[in-house]
Amino acid sequence: MQPTNLEPHPEGGNYREVFRSIHKVDAKNLGTRSALTHIYFLLEKPEKSCFHKVSSEEVWNLYKGEGIRLYQWDGESDEVEVIELSEAANQFCHVVPAHHWQAAEPIGDSALVGCSVAPGFEFQDFTLIRDCVGHAELLKKNQAQLSHLI
Fold first, then answer.
1. Could you tell me if 57 and 121 are in contact, meaning their C-beta atoms sit under 8 angstroms apart?
2. Residue ranges, the chain, pLDDT below 70
3. pTM value?
4. Angstrom distance (rounded) from CA 137 to CA 108
5. How many CB atoms lie within 10 A of CB 78?
6. pLDDT at 3
7. How far is CA 32 from CA 27, 29, 71, 97, 122, in A?
8. What is the pLDDT of residue 58?
9. CA distances from 34 to 21, 27, 116 (A)
10. How far apart are CA 63 and CA 142, in angstroms?
């Protein structure tokens, strides 16, 4: 059974926010934010989560499906880290540092994950790599095989 009432996410896939803390924090360079937010995020082949970054740390948790490949890039190095969240890899969660580019795609037909962001997610703290031409071109140059995630 998949979550209901999902809506398209700008990075790809579908999501629904399921928690937004009533507690507020003053986040450096961000202002006041909810202490924590959490979403369900569903990727069904051929959907993908295109490279994007958020201004806070994000924890990805695998709930259902064969797994996902999560890509993480600091925006400067030549290498992109590939993290597999799956039973086969015996890894079910991963923390993406704030301001790191990230992307994901399902390993099988679909993957249901949860994404928690602290301080809480706001769309104003979200950037798609395709809107940052210099970073998009650098990623294409160094990791051409990941161009489909731009």
1. no
2. 1
3. 0.94
4. 29
5. 9
6. 84
7. 6, 9, 29, 19, 11
8. 98
9. 5, 9, 12
10. 32
**What pairs with residue 104 in β-bridges?**
49, 70
The DSSP bridge partners found for residue 81 are: 72
- d(C-alpha 29, C-alpha 70), whole Å: 27
Looking from the CA of 5 toward its CB, the CA atoms found within 13 Å total: 4
* Distances from the Cα of 106 to the Cα of 41, 85, 125, angstroms: 11, 10, 25
CA quadruple 114, 104, 58, 132: dihedral sign? negative
Tokens of 31: 């202002």
State pLDDT tens for residues 36-74.
Answer: 999 999 999 999 999 999 999 999 999 999 999 999 999
Q: Would you tell me how many other CB atoms lie within 10 Å of the CB of residue 23?
A: 9
| Count of residues in the chain | 150
